[in-house]
């Protein structure tokens, strides 16, 4: 599941000091590196400057540096729910799942209505394989994040092997967005797990229409072709996959299997024809 895309911007206090004003102006014009350099001259204990620094570092993809900036903010302002949420996002993007859970939980303790923190908590719990807790977190989300939370619930149900409930949840998501690549990909995986070739074929074909280069769709169709004995089709699908993803060992293996079966079919002796004039 994809975590929330951006931190909450809370740097809205112009006029604190000239360096911070300069950094804000540079950030507004898209000059993020220059904005960071402007902030280098600001006292490192300034919580407001650290907030801006964290926002810029996050935008640049420097999540560990951004986490350090937000650590400084929450140390200075321990009751700032959005600062804890932003710290949690940075920790999550740094694959520090346990620490991100703690920061999300702190944000929720300060603001129980913070659904974005609840959604983020659910995502981190999924990565920690704390599936029942993740499901409960997603189930508690509401409002504008309801659809994202519904996807999280479906993933948790799938990982809990509650496959019928998971499929129903994914189907409901397709009613919201019939072209959701994530939902269709997970339904393909679910069909493979259930050994339901018809559903795997159906969802794979639907996904291929949405995304003609989808490895998940091609892998689903290759799996169906192999199971159905359609070895030439399987080889074609696997060949497309390895062109798109040369490091996909499963595709290389399946391609070899399909080719071996094709060769074996040519080597198999056919029926002996009756001799001319046989009685």
Descriptive account of the structure:
By secondary structure, this protein is mainly alpha-helical. The protein is 71% helix and 0% strand.
Short description:
With 279 residues, the protein is mainly alpha-helical. The chain has helices at 18-28, 32-39, 47-59, 63-76, 81-93, 97-110, 115-127, 131-139, 146-159, 163-176, 181-194, 197-210, 215-228, 231-244, 249-267.
SSE inventory with pairings:
Elements: H1 18-28, H2 32-39, H3 47-59, H4 63-76, H5 81-93, H6 97-110, H7 115-127, H8 131-139, H9 146-159, H10 163-176, H11 181-194, H12 197-210, H13 215-228, H14 231-244, H15 249-267
Helix pairs in contact: 1-2, 2-3, 3-4, 4-5, 5-6, 5-7, 6-7, 7-8, 7-9, 8-9, 9-10, 10-11, 11-12, 11-13, 12-13, 13-14, 14-15
CATH classification class of the domain at 191-265? Mainly Alpha
Order of helices and strands: HHHHHHHHHHHHHHH
Supply the CATH architecture of the domain at 191-265: Alpha Horseshoe
Contiguous helical run count: 15
What's the CATH superfamily of the domain at 191-265, by name? Tetratricopeptide repeat domain
The CA-CA distance between the termini, in Å, is 71 Å
Model regions low in confidence, pLDDT < 50 over at least 5 residues: 274-279
Counting helices, strands and paired strands, the structural category is mainly alpha
Helix content: over 70%
> Which oligomeric form is depicted?
single chain
Instruction: Please state the overall shape, judged from the principal axes of the Cα atoms.
Output: elongated
Strand element count: 0
Mean pLDDT: 89
Percentage of residues in DSSP E strands: under 5%
Write down the CATH topology of the domain at 191-265.
Answer: Serine Threonine Protein Phosphatase 5, Tetratricopeptide repeat
Radius of gyration: 26 Å
Main sheet characteristics: none
């Amino acid at each position: 599941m994809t975590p929330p895309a951006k931190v909450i911007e809370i740097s809205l206090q112009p006029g604190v000091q000239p360096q911070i004003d300069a950094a804000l102006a540079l950030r507004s014009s898209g000059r993020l590196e220059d904005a960071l350099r402007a902030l280098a001259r600001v006292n490192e204990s300034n919580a407001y400057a650290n907030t801006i620094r964290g926002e810029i570092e996050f935008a640049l993809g420097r999540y560990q540096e951004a986490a350090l900036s937000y650590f400084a903010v929450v140390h200075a302002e321990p009751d700032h729910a959005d600062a804890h949420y932003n710290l949690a996002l940075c920790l999550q993007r740094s694959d520090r799942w346990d620490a991100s859970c703690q920061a999300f939980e702190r944000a929720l303790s300060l603001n129980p209505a913070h659904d974005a923190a609840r959604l983020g908590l659910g995502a981190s719990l999924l990565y920690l394989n704390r599936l029942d807790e993740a499901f409960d977190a997603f189930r508690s989300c509401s409002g504008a994040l309801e659809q994202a939370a519904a996807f999280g619930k479906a993933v948790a149900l799938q990982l809990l092997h509650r496959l019928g409930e998971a499929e129903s949840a994914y189907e409901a998501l397709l009613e919201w967005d019939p072209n959701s690549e994530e939902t269709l990909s997970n339904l393909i995986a679910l069909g493979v797990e259930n050994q339901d070739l018809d559903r795997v074929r159906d969802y794979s074909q639907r996904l291929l229409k949405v995304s003609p280069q989808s490895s998940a769709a091609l892998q689903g169709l290759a799996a169906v072709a192999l199971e159905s004995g359609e070895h030439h089709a399987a080889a074609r699908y696997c060949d497309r996959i390895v062109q798109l993803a040369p490091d996909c060992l499963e595709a290389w293996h399946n391609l070899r299997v399909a080719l071996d079966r094709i060769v074996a079919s040519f080597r198999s002796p056919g029926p002996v024809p009756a001799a001319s004039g046989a009685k």
